[in-house]
């Protein structure tokens, strides 16, 4: 007769004592070296100004929204509103606090955006799902209205736009394309590092528990409401810094309409297409959303230069871009990050079948 | 981290691989001048954009094929889609700023307010002059602070002043303005608010009552605003809407019984597309414009003969020939071409770069004789730019919609630029202070 108690036939001797061992990986070093040294050295103005800087800023915004939507499960369509807060707050700080160094102004802008996010996150303790999404929609419209309505925010400029004050750090002029690129890259790398550690810490695990089932999370003793509000604040901090970089490092100017509802949707699409609840997904999604139209435009020029009517060509690119999005989402609803991950596994197993 | 990094690496390789694909495919040669065309053929404003590009391209084609280029320098152009956004506008600018296969850029038209604001600093760093016709930063009129921005012909300040001058003309003199009620119904955006400063100043000067009534974007419901207009009973209404809010305003005004021939639309409320949807209600509507509609100017005769009738026009709908937007494209292209021609007098008959293009713009002098030669007399006002004055003209014509087409009812109504200049200088000085810019000295030439 067999024992009624189930036994495990594997021994526990090889069970890992530490869960994940982290080391400095050569891949990471190479990537950072390329990004910090190689690209500024090789890249021309077009690459820095029109491709790399917007890609990095959108990645950061996607990352910020991913912390809220992908990790904590709180859908938000107000991302651009918080970006606007970051941009206008940074501008206000640089303008009205003389002698404030740029990094502090950026952090200040982020903190103010985070506080505003905290306020707009309060409804999350009572409502969820679509209803919460509607309150973030209200935040979007409210914030956009505030920055158009009150001239104090844009220093009474006749056109309602704010423009980047001199970007300087320790006397070094960051106004050049390379300077603005390095500023953006440093912010993105630093904040990505923080985010990676944050989602791996207890905070991140609590967020994910709330995302997966908030009742269960409450039962095991996670203060659900507090962590939801915290997710709003942290996410808005990231979005605020992304907004300031968008306004000053990328466009060089901004008005309330730079952060309209379409920008919010763009950022939401970045994380949906890139991959919810994945930090790399934010980067991949941003690359897809910001680079594919440019690639299509160049391809269109190259293939049909002058032979096809300009308007038709533009519309064709839109159709193609939309088609690609649909195709990718049908192939892999979990986003491009999953698609690329599968591809990588397949290549590892090659020539065997995956 | 272990999973993320290879993915990151992979994605960046994908990005880099893209560069290899980006081709530089066009067949331009030396001795050609590049005309970058930042266009918007898709998106919300495409319907207004399409006739503008047709006007520009038709004129450039006319210069190339009939006049053999500008003093023998042929023009090449390429389009880039901006969708009227700042981001794509920057992408297009960066793509084009180094020229096209050796053909340099002398002048760049951002074609869209967001892109114009975003490019202002970049163009200055790259020394490429920007033309913003009928939009853009008003304070850029002060060329000492904004050496590479040219809000040519009519800024929003001049527009407001030209409107008041037209009203004075209709009322029978500036002294008659005292006590009159002039309401501005405006699109509540940066663009709409831009005339508040000059109108307040002019109200103070002439003693009329200045009433400002905002219309929230997009403005497809304006009953509240026009009810307010009916209560106030203004003598004149200055309509500074744009897009869908213009026909809605005209229709709602008619519904509330406000006479449409007492409404004067501004530059962006003065096209065929603005009045056609209003139907019958639009009959008698007035509008200010620096590039009036009509296909009877001399340049239209030439373009019809050589371009339109030979099937080389970029226009898909020949009915748009001579529309306000088409004519604005003609005017914009002509300013650029004439500025290059002016620059060639100093630098020789060769393609010019941005710095030389700016010299050409700052020495541009289109008087009536020259306008007659190029076929623009009546379509375009005399325009003289200088180092300290990047606007030039400052006049508009008033046109009236008769239900079918625009009829010009005035000659050029000149703005009172001297009164407004101190306001502009103050704004420019404030900008210079905020950005730490030192103004150029314009005295010695």
Task: Give a description of the structure.
The complex is a heterodimer of chains A (354) and B (445). Chain A has helices at 26-42, 45-71, 79-96, 102-121, 130-149, 177-200, 202-212, 214-219, 224-251, 261-274, 279-304, 310-331, 336-349; strands spanning 162-163, 168-169, 172-173, 253-254. Chain A has 13 helices and 4 strands. With 354 residues, chain A is an all-alpha fold. Chain A is globular, with a radius of gyration of 23 Å. Chain A has a domain at 44-252 and 260-274. In chain A, 70% of the residues lie in helices and 2% in strands. The longest helix of chain A has 28 residues, at 224-251. Chain B is α/β, with parallel strands linked by helices. Chain B has 2 domains: 26-154 and 293-393, Response regulator (Rossmann fold); 156-289, Rossmann fold. Chain B has helices at 4-21, 46-65, 86-96, 113-126, 156-171, 190-193, 196-206, 223-232, 245-255, 272-275, 298-308, 324-347, 354-362, 368-374, 417-435, and strands spanning 32-39, 74-81, 130-131, 149-150, 181-187, 209-215, 236-240, 263-265, 286-289, 365-366, 383-384, 395-401, 406-408, 413-414. In chain B, helix 10 (272-275) links the parallel strand 8 (263-265) and strand 9 (286-289). In chain B, helix 5 (156-171) runs parallel beside helix 7 (196-206). The termini of chain B are far apart. The model of chain B is unreliable at 12-28 (pLDDT under 50). Classes of the chains: A mainly alpha (354), B alpha/beta (445). At the A-B interface, helix 1, helix 2, helix 11, helix 12 and helix 13 of A face helix 1, helix 2, strand 2, helix 3 and helix 4 of B.
């Amino acid at each position: 007769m067999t024992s009624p108690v189930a036994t495990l036939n594997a021994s526990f001797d090889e069970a890992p004592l530490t869960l994940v061992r982290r080391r400095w990986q050569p891949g990471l070093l190479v990537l950072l070296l390329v990004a910090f040294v190689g690209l500024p050295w090789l890249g021309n103005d077009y690459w820095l100004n029109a491709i790399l800087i917007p890609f990095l800023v959108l990645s950061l915004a996607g990352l910020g929204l991913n912390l809220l939507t992908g990790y904590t499960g709180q859908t938000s369509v107000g991302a651009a509103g918080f970006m606007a807060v970051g941009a206008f707050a940074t501008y206000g700080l640089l303008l009205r606090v003389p002698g404030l160094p740029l990094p502090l102004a950026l952090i200040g802008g982020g903190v103010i955006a985070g506080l505003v996010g905290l306020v707009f996150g309060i409804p999350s303790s009572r409502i969820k799902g679509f209803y919460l999404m509607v309150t973030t929609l209200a935040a979007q419209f409210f914030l956009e209205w505030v920055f158009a309505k009150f001239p104090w925010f844009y220093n009474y400029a006749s056109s309602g736009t704010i423009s980047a004050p001199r970007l300087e750090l320790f006397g070094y002029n960051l106004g050049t394309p390379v300077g603005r690129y390095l500023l953006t890259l440093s912010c993105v790398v630093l904040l990505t590092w923080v985010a990676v550690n944050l989602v791996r810490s207890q905070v991140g695990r609590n967020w994910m528990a709330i995302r997966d089932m908030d009742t269960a999370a409450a039962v095991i003793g996670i203060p659900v409401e507090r962590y939801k509000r915290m997710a709003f604040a942290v996410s808005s901090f990231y979005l605020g810094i992304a907004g300031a970089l968008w306004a000053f490092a990328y466009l060089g100017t901004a008005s309330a309409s730079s952060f309209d509802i379409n920008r919010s949707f763009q950022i939401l699409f970045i994380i949906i297409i890139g991959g919810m609840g994945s930090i790399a997904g934010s980067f991949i999604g941003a690359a897809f959303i910001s680079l594919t139209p440019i690639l299509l435009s160049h391809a269109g020029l190259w293939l049909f230069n002058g032979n096809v009517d300009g308007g038709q060509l533009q519309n064709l690119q839109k159709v193609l871009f939309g088609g690609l999005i649909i195709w990718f989402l049908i192939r892999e609803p979990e986003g491009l990050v999953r698609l690329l991950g599968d591809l990588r596994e397949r290549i590892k197993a090659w020539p065997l079948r995956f | 981290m272990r999973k993320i990094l290879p993915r990151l690496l992979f994605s960046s390789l994908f990005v880099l691989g893209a560069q290899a694909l980006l081709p530089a495919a066009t067949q331009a040669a030396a001795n050609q001048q590049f005309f970058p065309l930042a266009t918007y053929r898709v998106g919300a404003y495409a319907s207004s954009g399409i006739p503008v590009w047709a006007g520009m391209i038709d004129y450039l084609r006319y210069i190339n094929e009939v006049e053999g280029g500008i003093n023998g320098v042929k023009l090449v152009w390429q389009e880039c889609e901006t969708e009227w956004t700042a981001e794509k506008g920057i992408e297009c600018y960066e793509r084009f700023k180094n020229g096209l296969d050796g053909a340099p850029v002398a002048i760049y038209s951002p074609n869209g307010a967001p892109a114009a604001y975003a490019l202002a600093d970049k163009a200055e760093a790259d020394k490429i002059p920007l033309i913003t016709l009928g939009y853009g930063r008003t304070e850029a009129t002060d060329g000492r602070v904004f050496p590479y921005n040219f809000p040519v012909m009519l800024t929003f300040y001049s527009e407001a002043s030209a409107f008041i001058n037209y009203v004075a003309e209709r009322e029978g003199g500036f002294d008659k303005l005292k006590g009159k009620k002039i309401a501005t119904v405006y699109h509540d955006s940066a663009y709409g608010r831009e005339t508040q400063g000059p109108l307040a100043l002019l109200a103070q000067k002439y003693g009329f009552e200045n009433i400002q009534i905002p219309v929230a974007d997009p403005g497809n419901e304006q009953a509240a605003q026009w009810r307010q207009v009916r209560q106030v009973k203004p003598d004149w209404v200055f309509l500074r809407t744009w897009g869908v809010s213009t026909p809605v305003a005209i229709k709602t005004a008619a519904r509330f019984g406000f006479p449409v021939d007492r409404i004067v639309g501004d530059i962006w409320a003065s096209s065929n597309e603005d009045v056609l949807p209003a139907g019958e209600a639009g009959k008698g509507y007035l509008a200010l414009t620096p590039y009036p509609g009509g296909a009877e100017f001399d340049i239209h005769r030439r373009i019809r003969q050589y371009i339109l009738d030979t099937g080389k026009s970029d226009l898909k709908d020949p009915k748009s020939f001579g529309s306000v937007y088409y004519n604005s494209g003609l005017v914009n292209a002509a300013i650029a071409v004439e500025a290059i021609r002016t620059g060639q007098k100093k630098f020789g008959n060769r393609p010019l770069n941005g710095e030389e293009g700016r010299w050409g713009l700052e020495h541009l002098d289109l008087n009536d004789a020259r306008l007659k030669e190029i076929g623009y007399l009546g379509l375009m006002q005399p325009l003289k730019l200088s180092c300290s004055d990047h606007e030039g003209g400052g006049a508009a014509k008033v046109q009236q919609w008769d239900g079918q087409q625009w009829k010009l009812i005035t000659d050029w109504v000149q703005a009172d630029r001297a009164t407004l200049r101190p306001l502009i200088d103050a704004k420019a000085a404030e900008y210079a202070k905020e950005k730490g810019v030192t103004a150029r000295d314009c005295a010695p030439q």
